[in-house]
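quick one: protoporphyrin IX containing FE bound model?
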Amino acid sequence: MVFLSRYDMYALPRYDEVRAAATDWQTFSSARGVFVDRDVNAQLEGITLCSDPPEHTAMRSVLGRPLRADRMREVTPRIETEADEVVERVVSRGRCEVVTELAEHLPMTVVSELVGLPEHGREKMLEWAAAIWNTQGPADERAAAAGPAVQEFMSFAMNEAVPGKIEPVGWAAQLYEAADRGEIAHDKCPVMMLDYITPSLDTTVLAIANTVALFAEHPDQWDLLRNDRSLIPHAINESLRLESPVPQFSRVLTEDHVIGGVELSAGSRVALLYASANRDERHYPEPTRFDITRRPSDHLAFGRGEHVCVGMHLARLEMSALLERLADRVTRFEILDSRPMINNGLRGFDHLNVAFESASA
Ligand code: HEM
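yep, here:
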């Protein structure tokens, strides 16, 4: 465990400690926010991500309804069709900028449509989401620069993403219907919109781009996957383990608690370093090796416990549809150039230019 004096918080880098904390919400509470910045934590108290049971349970069950594993069948045909189209388009050109031309496609077409925001909102979703991730803190220049976009989003959520203006059958509309039935409070609906928009886009975009980059760097692993498609779910897990798009979220201790022989007092903020835990050599031998036969289904890239990612089935579906199509069409990826994304809450590529060697070439 490490004390980050600059941010007045502790950080857990090891797998066992992170997993234990994530699965003990009674001691490691989300209700005082899960971010680095104190003010943002105060402002966002009470959203699904920043709450504990029983409030959390009620919100999560409404939010997660369209995202349950058994509901994915309904969206699979649409996702597969879009995956076919986008892969065909970029591969036939021989090269593409993976982030904007390939990875953003499914979240921006399918997910934004499923949420059902008015058109103006759909166009802005990525910009708003990136800004919201940046405002999580620390309170640096990036967080400050993101302020206006976050305000714009909040005003949109309160005034535009409301019944009558949103698509009548989308996820956003279902939030308001659940409120009408008394399952959640009406005033929770605008902030719960945050839960659909912030974590559903960049996370998946980054995960897709990271996966392409890993296969470009490890052509032997791409050959394995092309020869055995049953490895796709394991490849997705291994990519998320090795290059986790969400490096951390934090919790606040509800009571004094001993971690690694050190007693921390109630009220301490503790970061659960998911990305670091996923590279803990005590848990994953040779942790920096990309090995799609490793089958690390216990990775922590989606978190664990009460707050485990509610959108993970959708994220996996998007990633697997793209990998299936890419495996049909591409024999090799070559990275032409890349640029990391600099964001306070996310990690991955901002820009990834790749050339394809095509199967039919
Ligand atoms: C590869 C893509 C994704 C990654 C890496 C990811 C990562 C995470 C992580 C680490 C958490 C845990 C938060 C915590 O510990 O406090 C989380 C929660 C969450 N994710 Fe995801 N996510 C992804 C995709 C999605 C998608 C596609 C959606 C929605 C459509 C989504 C919606 C959510 C929501 C609403 C929560 C909060 C759940 C709760 O507090 O109960 N995520 N995600």
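The two ends are 52 Å apart (CA to CA).
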